[in-house]
Each structure stands twice: as structure tokens, then as C-alpha cells.
Amino acid sequence: xxxxxxxxxxxxxxxxxxxxxxxxxxxxxxxxxxxxxxxxxxxxxxxxxxxxxxxxxxxxxxxxxxxxxxx
Length: 71
Hints:
Number of domains: 1
Number of helices: 3
Mean pLDDT: 88
Helix content: 25-40%
């Protein structure tokens, strides 16, 4: 079996581009976000804005794993 990491940068032009997927509810983190009541969701967004920043492009590293197995 061969396992290899695939690393990329996810680039978001603005904070709005970064935040939009959180409102779609897909995946664990996004599903959690959508399970919050509106006031808590707004608090989460404000915390992310504070920690990530609102100036310019946002670059987040992402990793996927490729696995090749032989039968």
C-alpha cells in the first residue's frame, strides 16, 4: 500500500468567499455552523473575522490523502 499527502492552498479572494461555504451546511464543520442558532452563528463569524482578518486574500492550507492499495 502507498500513502501520499497532497497539499494545496485554498485561496479565497475575500472573507465573504471564505465564509460562504459555512452557510451551505456540507461537511462536519459546516454542518456544525448551520446547527447553531443565528446569534451563535453571527458570533462565530465575528470571531473568524477577528482571527483571520478582513484585508485581502485569505490562503488556507489543505491536505488530502491518496492511498493506492494492491489486491
